[in-house]
Amino acid sequence: LIVWFFYKNKKRFIEQLPTFPLQLAGALLFVAFIFLSLTAARNIIFYFLLIAPVIAILINDFLPKKIVTKNVVLILGVIFYITIVSNAYYVFIKSKNQYGLGINAGANPIGASQFIIKHGLEKKKCFSSYMVSSFLLWDLQPDFKTYIDLRDLDVFTPDFFVNYFKDAQIPDRFYKLDQKENFEYVVLFRNFSPQIHHYLYTDTIYGCVFADPVCAIYQKTDKLAQGDHFAQPTAMPTSTLATAINKILNPFYAETDYENLDVNLQAAEYYEAVGMITLAKKRINLYLYQHPNDATALELQQRLNTFTPKSDAL
Question: What is the pTM of this model?
Answer without folding.
Answer: 0.77
